[in-house]
Amino acid sequence: MNRLIIFSSVLALLLTSCEPKEPDDPPVPPPPSTGLTPAMARDSLYYLMKQWYYWYDVMPVVNKENYSDPYQLMEAMRYKPLDRWSFVADYDEFLAEMSGTFVGHGIRIGIDESKKARIAMIYSLSPLYAEGVRRGWIIKTINNVDIAAVIIAGDAEAYNNALGPAEAGVTNTFVFQKPDGSEVTINSTKKSFQVNSVLLYDTLHLSSGITGHLVFESFIEPSAQELETAFSFFKENNIKDLILDLRYNSGGYLYVARKLASYIAGNTPAASNTTFARLTYNNKNAAYNTNYPFETTSYPLGLTRIVFITSNITASASEAVINGLKPLMNVVTVGDTTHGKPVGMNGWEVGEKYFFWPVTFKMVNKDNQGDFFDGFPPSKVQIDDITHDFDDRREYCLREAISYLTTGSFSATKGITDIRRYPQVSEKPEWMNNAFATQKIK
Prior knowledge:
Blueprint: E1 3-7, E2 11-14, H1 38-52, H2 70-77, E3 87-90, H3 91-98, E4 101-104, E5 107-111, E6 117-122, E7 138-142, H4 147-153, H5 156-163, E8 171-177, E9 183-189, E10 191-194, E11 198-206, E12 209-216, H6 223-236, E13 241-245, E14 251-253, H7 254-265, E15 275-281, E16 290-293, E17 305-310, H8 317-325, E18 330-335, E19 343-350, E20 354-357, E21 359-364, E22 380-381, H9 396-407, E23 424-426, E24 436-440
Helix pairs in contact: 1-2, 6-7, 7-8
């Protein structure tokens, strides 16, 4: 089975029966069914990189015998001037993450302008969400540790010691300050649960018309159904414009990205049979170059303008959506410059122990626009205002998006010319900053 994924470290596209037909799987030596050792996996990776790596002709020359496992070899062979993303993942952990299975408290913690730690994001099935915790709540301490000071110092060891391992059953004591100024102590036990990639969808009744508002956090397997529910709601409410918040979306499966873009573009003549993304492999694998058109959807919007909320975390599949829609409509962005990942990856499953995800292709839109390694700069620079929830019209980015849609311009307040970035930490694995072209080639 072939898969493509697009994250800020990989491009992910999960091919199903309704996807375009792929070429036959390429000739890759099959991994042993039993007795797989780290050295054997390392050797398989070495072969793959020589054949499939997008920058195979400029990657470092290495002696594979100097590396004990594929993790070390991947780091040694990466073409570091451009490649920040190629990685090796544990097989079970990767599948669990991409299916939406999560173990932890289900939160992202950020530092605000006054150097306080706050909840920047929280999943709806998080144990803390059930206690009423929401984005914007101040975290005073975790297990009596001033977590803001730890994050500002960049002390990973102290942070990990404070929260403990990512295992179900680990309990942490949080002291929060709520929006009304009161304090509350909550004992939260980490658990396994299904994440929601759609964090919020609603409508804003503006002077310019009914506007859809969608906060979307990752392109994973459950996302397709979540997006169908959201766009069914938008279609029913006959929205005129859309504010799409991708500030924490670092990528995922390309088939989900294409579906999202297709809902937005609609079943219009401009979008029908039009390229959403074109994938180009290295010169050894040109036969695998593939064109992915927009698809027909059940809830097409056919919008003429859209406002994206972005950050330096916005990556890969998210950037593919922005890039794919640019030739079809007025695309405006608010926030920070995006991550900058115009390439994607194929995945190789090795002995049900590893997943290899090297960068294997570059990605452009219908006008052959791509190579956005520096990211997409925002039309209006604005910080991530974690003091307000996503649907609070006082939140800086949402406020600017509304200003643009209602007046045709951004607020008259002096804009930020040099974005101020404040640290954030997430329980997600680092490799989730990727775009996977989930073409899982066996």
